[in-house]
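Quality-control log, excerpt.
Job 1 of 2 completed; input and output follow.
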Amino acid sequence: MHDMRDGENKQAHSWCSDCSEPLCGECLKFHRKGKTTANHKPIPILEAEKLDFSVLNIPETCHIHDDQTLSLFCLQHDTICCAFCLRESHNACKDVESKENASKGVKMGTAIDDLQHRMSEFSLMIGDKYKGKIRNVRKEFNTYLDELEQEIDTKFDACNKECKGEIEKHIKDLTTRKNKSESWQTAIETLTEYASETRIFAAIKTVDLLQVEEEMFLSKFQEGLVEYKLRSSPFEFIEKIKPILATLSELKVEKIKTTVQHPLNVQQVYAYKVQQGKTQLLYKIRCSQLEMKVLNKASFTMNNQIVFNGSPFRVYDITNSSVHTIKVGYSSSDVTCNVKNNVYASFPPIGVYNIDIKNLEEGPRINKETSTENAYGRVKVNNALIYSNVENAIVLLSQDGTAVKTLQCKITVLFICVDNCGGMFISDGKSIIHMIETGSHNEISTNMKSDHEIRGLDVSEQGQLYACICHKEEGSVVQINTSTGYKEPVLENLVTPRHIAFHPTKNMFLIITDKCKECLIYQITN
């Protein structure tokens, strides 16, 4: 690279990531003394030349409005934009801030770790699993060739050449993509050490988009992966070999669709089959952001927060992505919130506690009496009543802890949800029963398959019943017609969805998925 300042062509010795330009020795001295560039950290030009140029040379101006600086960040769409883009495409977005504010703390945050983890997994996926699988196909093919008779070597060589050509093409393509992903990772590591937070932030967003494209390519590559098999006319008797030899040489290669047993998880790149116009993904929260090993249950609050139960609890602020901690004395199994912003959590078998999210502390216990081990595993709140389970019954508690009513259940209660009219839906993981406060039961005919199970249940503000249904590790979110039992898919191809919770007043819901590692927040758009 060369420094072209003042019309001169000088050999560059350094590269400034914040300015996206090479520097000669003289310019480097002025760069270190300048008021606006003194805190920049140029790197040796030889190191810069090893890095991916698409990460180093990130534009500062908008590609749509070339006279506008990329100075804003929309949290809702997770994108950097200019002032004109904000007016044209993000005028309805509430969560918009300056790029400088959004990038604060990026070096200490989880964005770099999360992106590097994804890139590492991507490189390993290509380097180990898929290249190995393709090489195994070639090895098996060659072994099969070695076992065939010498008389048809010419035909087999032609088939072998055809198959190898396709396989080598795939290996070359995957190797190129693997090297590209590793170069992005190296660039991010170098920028993290030498560049400003604003620059790092822009680089992360750029690489994130590039990484999404690579992940989508790999997903499509998996779907189109084929295995090669040789077909020939079989022969059974020695005396028939000679007349059949002529047909044995008529070999051809067939491409047979094969299934990848452990496909890449590309939930982060919107690989869900979401019904058109049904839902819109708003936010993604990883357990690493909350400093939690796994996510169990969660609930929206009325002040734009989400409470995650655990030991301790975490309170995530959707507006500014901040996280607060609430220490609790026991292990919680469920959490809920009502329209008055009262949060309650169940601690089996002790009872239901109020959680003070304003002062970030555990509040008093609601129930006056403790029960057996199979009690207070679930909790829901509706208006002034708190619903929880005791043995095979639902107990309705008032705010002061008085047991207003106890309703016997016909099934083991694993999930409870309550509609605005006081009706309850309970499930044992296989069936769903609708109960009312008189105690009457009405089973909903969902026609669940024997190898499918319900992992989550909740009711929307409009009274519509939704459920998470899983088959092994694959699952979906469905809307259930409470009259007919018909299950209308809302989200499909989810990885282990195990909890769903609706906002008390907004048409939003969250699900915990990806083996309890991620919380996804959706807006229902129709």
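Job 2 of 2 completed; input and output follow.
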Amino acid sequence: MKIRRRKKGHAVIEAASLSDILFFLMLFFLMISTMASPEAIRILLPNASTGKAIPKHPVSVIIDSKLNWYVDGRPTDEYTIRTELSSESKKYNNEITVVLKADKSISVEQLIKVVDIVNQLKIPLVVATERGK
């Protein structure tokens, strides 16, 4: 007696559905990887009911295109700015922040002079810029 063998059917897998699944997996992992920040340190900060943040008094240092220097609107120069900032710092108990506003046409050397003086006085510095277009 002859035993008949069954015909083996070939399984067909549609490539289109696999590529859709692969695309969605890749999209999912790309979205998750951009949300995760590996260098972030997660801490829980304590709460305080009586404490409050005290903002530092901003002192503006302005250098215009003609190299005129101003401290809080008062004219000064690069030689007396150290004493001006030091007296402002003492006036507000060393709780000031210098906001540097400089014309874009001045040299970097002028900016570095102010940054150097502010760093020597150990005063926090913020550089004011215009928002990009």
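Post-run check on job 2. Strands lie at 57-63, 69-71, 74-76, 96-102, 125-127.
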